[in-house]
Specification:
CATH architecture of the largest domain: 3-Layer(aba) Sandwich
Strand content: 15-25%
Structural class: alpha/beta
Oligomer: single chain
Helix content: 40-55%
Distance between the termini: 12 Å
Number of strands: 13
Radius of gyration: 21 Å
CATH class of the largest domain: Alpha Beta
CATH superfamily of the largest domain: Glycogen Phosphorylase B
Shape: globular
Order of helices and strands: EHHEHEHHEEHHEHEHEHEHEHEHEHEHHH
Strand order of the largest sheet: 3-2-1-4-5-6-7
Length: 378
């Protein structure tokens, strides 16, 4: 029996993005039951609540995640190996979050979700950005096979680091279609509006951690321009926790006098996402670069039209369910906002196309892509 160890750390420590992808893939892998001896591990001590949340028993290191990172990656130490806390020799080690810990596994697989830290220096705090620029290429060189969240990330890996295409498998994320679907219950829609302080009338939803790469400052300026040109009655609701270098976002709202029209409700509880997507007239996600674009697929699965950038993996995520704009052009974003706000037929077409496109992104498909990748290296 193939002994497979998967780093489950991001699944327990990151609520959105990478954490959601790892949780979904591991759960689907367990349900696919491919016959592996599957062992999950977490870097750093694990709390009782985290242990309860995991789908299988989880091994953990007695040393904190920060100190393990120092030992493994800053000091470049080969000890302790993953096998010391996963119960012996491994056939496959799957590192799920950019970096590869020391191991004597027969084959080592590494997921690289994106190269944002390479293309956009302000995509992470300076210390983290410098760390990733050293450790990720080193991990890529040590890995036997690379998993990428999108075909665009796979192309980036080939172009930037000359990774041979045969050493890369695209394993895309997905959505839980039993949860992410159109919410038509007016009571549920009203409750989510009340919970996040969203007033009556139509609103445009933006959603992500507040950081420069997500391009919210341009979105706000484009929203102001669209309001001036088209007398839009819409609110702009930007959900998400504060990341870094977010002062410009709030300053832009103040500068343009939009404090009544642009609202920041903060972190959105995962359970509220389907109703919030469904309540929005459309979803605006003009990011400058993404590795997969999971919120786009979530919005489409809820029947919500999407405006997004024409860059990186975003067309993969949006398919025919999105209106694409130049994410670096305030004027282009503004015209996109006006087009979606004014044209109900366009929204209806995008809604139908988006539902069909999102239906392809299932965790069962994602798990099969994983299984195929594991088979390539054995």
């Amino acid at each position: 029996m193939t002994v497979l160890a998967i780093d489950y750390t991001p699944a327990l420590r990151q609520q959105a993005g990478i954490g959601r992808i790892v949780r979904g893939q591991v759960q689907a892998l367990i349900e696919a039951n491919p016959g592996y001896d599957l062992r999950l591990f977490v870097i750093g001590p694990i709390s009782p609540a985290e242990r309860e949340a995991a789908p299988l028993p989880v091994a953990s290191t007695p040393i904190s995640e920060r100190n393990m990172v120092r030992i493994w990656h800053r000091l470049n130490s080969p000890f302790p190996r993953v096998e010391t806390f996963t119960g012996g020799p491994l056939d496959i080690l799957h590192a799920t979050d950019f970096v590869l810990p020391p191991s004597r596994a027969r084959r080592k697989l590494l997921t690289v979700h994106d190269l944002a830290f390479l293309f956009y220096p302000d995509a992470a705090m300076p210390g983290l950005q410098r760390y990733l620029n050293v450790v990720v290429p080193r991990s890529v060189n040590r890995a036997d096979h690379i998993l990428a969240d999108s075909h665009n990330t796979a192309a980036d890996l080939q172009e930037q680091w000359r990774v041979p295409p045969e050493q890369i498998t695209v394993v895309q994320g997905a959505v839980e279609h039993d949860r992410f679907r159109p919410v038509e219950d007016e009571g549920a829609l009203d409750r989510v509006r009340t919970r996040y302080g969203i007033g009556p009338g139509p609103f445009i939803l933006g959603l992500s951690r507040l950081e420069p790469r997500k391009n919210f400052a341009r979105l706000i300026r484009a929203f102001a321009l669209a309001r001036a040109e088209g007398r839009l009655p819409h609110q702009l609701i930007i959900g998400g926790s504060k990341g870094w270098l977010y002062d410009e976002i709030f300053a832009t709202v103040q500068e343009l006098g939009l404090t009544d029209a642009v609202r920041f409700p903060g972190f959105i509880d995962d359970a509220d996402l389907p109703a919030l997507y469904s309540a929005a007239e459309f979803f605006a996600y003009p990011s400058l670069y993404e590795g997969f674009g999971l919120p786009i697929v979530e919005a489409l699965a809820c029947g919500t039209p999407v405006l997004t950038g024409d860059n990186s993996c975003l067309p993969e995520a949006g398919g025919d369910g999105a209106l694409y704009v130049d994410a670096e052009s305030i004027e282009d974003i503004a015209q996109g906002l006006l087009g979606l706000a004014k044209d109900a037929d366009l929204r209806a077409r995008l809604r139908a196309a988006g539902l069909a496109h999102a239906a392809h992104f299932t965790w069962q498909r994602s798990a099969q892509q994983l299984i195929d990748a594991y088979a390539k290296v054995l």
